[in-house]
Amino acid sequence: xxxxxxxxxxxxxxxxxxxxxxxxxxxxxxxxxxxxxxxxxxxxxxxxxxxxxxxxxxxxxxxxxxxxxxxxxxxxxxxxxxxxxxxxxxxxxxxxxxxxxxxxxxxxxxxxxxxxxxxxxxxxxxxxxxxxxxxxxxxxxxxxxxxxxxxxxxxxxxxxxxxxxxxxxxxxxxxxxxxxxxxxxxxxxxxxxxxxxxxxxxxxxxxxxxxxxxx
Length: 215
Hints:
Elements: H1 7-28, H2 65-84, H3 88-100, H4 109-122, H5 129-141, H6 148-200
Helix pairs in contact: 2-4, 3-4, 4-5, 5-6
């Protein structure tokens, strides 16, 4: 025989069961999804850095003036040594060949120096060689290029050589003048001697004076 069921207890049990089911359903439901975190704001782009200006191409180093002057001096010394080793005949031939091809105005400094050396070594006064050498050297001696120092040195030698020649010419003129006076005095002396001889020796055909008679 079935057990009698209390209606109140049944309702209470039903209420408890419903509450239990609701609690179980709530526990079994997955947790509500949390909203995604906002994406970080993009970082501000850095200010553009200007590209460095291209460095200028390195210019060629300026030549050293002292080195250029040294090279010019060495070139002149080499030319002098070459001319000095020539025989007299070879030097004369080179002189004549140079006379046939005069240097143009504003000629190369090296050519002007070598021509001046040639004129100084030959040095024919009647041809005015030293004056021509001076004309070749003066433009470079007064300039500011690497040939200035050696041109001044050669020009000083030319001027000294010209002074010596002028002194020798002056002494030669004095000697010639003295010789002329000596010759003149000798001629006068010879004339006096001739007069003296003519007085001491009677002329031929002139009768001698008669001797005086004794008293």
